[in-house]
Specification:
It is a single chain. The chain is an alpha+beta fold and about 140 residues long. The protein has two domains: about 40 residues, Orthogonal Bundle (Arc Repressor Mutant, subunit A); about 80 residues, Alpha-Beta Plaits (2-Layer Sandwich). It has five helices and four strands; from the N terminus they run αααβαββαβ. Strands 2-3-1-4 form a four-stranded antiparallel β-sheet. α2 packs across α3. The longest helix has 13 residues.
Length: about 140
């Protein structure tokens, strides 16, 4: 990966719908050359996909929280299946520490969150932190 690849990645991170023409103009390459570089970045798993960033409040989800869960190892596979199927869980990380799972969740209100916590308690003890404000969320190359 060279500086031109990095420039292409930065452009795509700022606007994943940027046209090949616009990207090629910014990096001083032909459109076919840019297309080939993007294909290679995908093939090498540098680019894992193109995503839309959602504002969950527009869906009535006013609470975002991080929930640490200490899942019994015998239940972990079932827990993972539960997490994939539960619509309120938006990310699931397997972690090391006093807990072995970290979930980012959304909820309509405290009752909605409480119901989710009751389900999670089947798998192990939980600790919840409510997110008051996100100061930045950055997956961008600097």
């Amino acid at each position: 990966m060279d500086n031109t690849d990095i420039k292409i990645l930065k452009i795509l991170q700022n606007n994943c719908k940027a046209t090949l023409k616009d990207i090629s103009t910014e990096v001083n390459l032909t459109s076919p050359a840019v297309m080939e570089r993007i294909r290679k970045l995908k093939d090498d798993n540098v680019i894992n996909g193109y995503y839309t960033s959602l504002n969950f409040e527009k869906f009535g989800m006013t609470i975002t929280a991080l929930i640490s869960v200490d899942v019994n190892q015998k239940k972990y596979e079932t827990f993972c299946k539960f997490c994939r199927e539960e619509e309120l869980i938006i990310t699931h990380h397997h972690i090391i520490g006093p807990y072995n799972a970290m979930l980012q969740v959304i909820a309509r209100d405290s009752s909605n969150l409480s119901n989710l916590l009751k389900k999670l308690n089947f798998f192990g003890t939980t600790q919840t932190s409510i997110i008051l404000d996100t100061l930045f969320s950055n997956e961008m190359l600097k």
